[in-house]
Amino acid sequence: MTEKYAVVVIGGGAAGLSAALVLGRARHRTLVVDAGEPRNAPAAHMQGYLTRDGMPPAEFLALGREEITRYGVELVRDRVVEVARRVQGEDPTVAPGEDPTAAPGEDPTVAPVEGFTVVLAGGRTVRARRLVVATGLKDELPAVAGVAERFGRDVLHCPFCHGWEVRDQPFGVLASSPASVHQALMVSQWSKDVRFFLHTVAEEELSDEDLRRLAAAGVQVVPGEVAELVIENDRLTGIRLTDGTEHARSVLFVAPRAVPQTGLLEGLGAELHDTPFGAYPVVDATGLTSVPGVWAAGNAIGFAEQVVHAASGGYRAASAIVGDLLMTDLDAAAQV
Description:
Blueprint: E1 3-10, H1 14-25, E2 30-34, H2 57-69, E3 74-77, E4 80-86, E5 115-120, E6 125-133, E7 137-140, H3 147-150, E8 155-156, H4 159-162, E9 171-174, H5 180-187, E10 194-197, H6 208-216, E11 220-222, E12 226-232, E13 235-241, E14 246-248, E15 251-253, E16 257-260, H7 263-267, E17 272-275, E18 278-281, E19 294-296, H8 307-335
Parallel strand pairs: 1-2, 1-6, 2-3, 6-19, 8-15, 9-10, 9-15, 10-11
Antiparallel strand pairs: 4-5, 5-6, 7-16, 12-13, 13-14, 17-18
Helix pairs in contact: 1-2, 1-8
């Protein structure tokens, strides 16, 4: 028999676990489906989260998983492969006045008929009245030898996450587009020894304003394509260009290409909007998408959602769902 939940949370990172915590405390039967692929897995620590500054991401998630179980939330290590809406009148298996997604103890003649069928890769199928999509995104790194192997160690992407820990060291910034100028300028806040490697970007592609700002920040522009990173004793020591020139650097900032994980949302017909970092769902202030009953949170709604933002977004989404379910049920009861 297909299991029924009030809410299924897809994704067990900061956003998903935060949503699950709020939902569990509100006494809603909740399932978290987690594929176990957090975006910040390469990082040894996370920063800027009050009271959790410097905590390893794996430890943070482990504590979150422990907390949600105190409130009866179920968590399964699996992947959602398909989500479909179930609406009375459109699904011949849904009888009039019956809600197939009503949780145990709920009156199926009072609960709303709309819901979702969620299929997991392991073969399990469950039903939910509401969904939280917290599937995050994937980072595609520049194809330069050594970058992927060092990512999260001395190859970094966010100065707010790691700038303090590498402050005053010789920085490199690898350009992936003219927009990388912004990253080079930002990291100059943490070091006055910054070299901006144009890589595949031509110097003519930089505006006069870009060049003036780089000069004012003391950032040295280095033309030429980067061939590889120089690693000695398991540490980054330099950047080697294709012409053989080496630049001594101990930190390299890169700008990964963000790949939003929007497949499930697109399958449900959610409206997306284009950004410089990919297409993300259109959401309101609570994370509600254009699909009734579906909320999104964390990096599922944008590139720059740090852990603290993601946790906040999950909280907002869950709070909105609690109110939505309550009002829906009260309105349905009033009509009986």
